[in-house]
Specification:
Length: 71
């Protein structure tokens, strides 16, 4: 169920420029997941990381390495 929520969130994000900017500004996958909760979507940061490299509709999920991040 949560993977369906994740995919639905990514589809919504591609048509909402403000939301897309918020996602791109997030530092971690958990931050993206927390942001999604505010829009009624529920998935974990781990689930987001698991689909890294996959394309969902017009969105390609890519993990970004943040220097100095140890979590």
């Amino acid at each position: 169920m949560s993977l369906e929520q994740l995919r639905a969130f990514l589809v919504k994000m591609q048509d909402d420029a403000d939301l897309r900017q918020q996602v791109l500004s997030a530092s971690t996958a958990d931050e993206v997941a927390n942001l999604a909760v505010g829009f009624g979507y529920e998935f974990s940061g781990d689930e987001l990381l698991r689909i890294s490299g996959q394309k969902v509709d017009r969105v390609t999920v890519r993990k970004q390495d943040v220097p100095g991040e140890y979590n």
